[in-house]
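Dear colleagues,

As part of the handover before I leave the project, I'm documenting each prediction I ran so the next person doesn't have to rerun anything. This entry is a single chain, and its sequence is reproduced below.
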Amino acid sequence: MNVLDDYTGHVEPGGDAARRTLNALTITKLSVGSMDNNTYLLVCRAQNQALLIDAAADPDRISDLIGHGPDRPALRTVVTTHQHADHWQALGAVAGANGANTAAHPADAGPLPVPPDFLLEQGDTLTVGDCPLEVIHLRGHTPGSIALLYRDPSGPPHLFTGDSLFPGGVGRTTNPTDFTSLMDDLEERVFGVLPDDTWFYPGHGDDSVLGTERPKIPEWRERGW
């Protein structure tokens, strides 16, 4: 697996991974599967322990991303951001091969191929090594969609949004009630409390920062998607 260190937030389907190195944590992004799903490997640099967000597809490529040598990080947890099948095709294989625990929100646990070892609710905290991640429940794309927030002590926050927030708009919803719910949660729990320089990492495609998207919120409300 070729890993590029000049992180821009863009990766190509079937292409190289891209790694961002923070003081305490590395974040490595890889596109997997036919729907250009992003999977994110977070590694605590002090403990060499890892957490994977969305084992979406291509378990062999994810295994290569984690590594095969004696210095590879220990994968402790695989978090699924929501119940849609394109986000968990490799969940059983990756968790089983690494002896990792799995985690998801209870409202989205039912369709998953393996029952979660841990259930994650709004306000919960889980850790990757020494690095805490906050759970944010974003209701609308699915009932149990979650985002994970890492507050870097020495830089801007980093937010993993699944399919709830993308550059240019919110995730797909199927009715006005769900759209309003998702918009309300994003405004209250994300845009309302996090600064403009928060970098966010979606479930598909390129990254963005909240400051780029914030002025567009009224437009999203008006168009209804």
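The longest strand covers residues 25-32. Helices lie at 59-66, 91-98, 176-191, 210-213, 217-223.

All the best with the project,
I.
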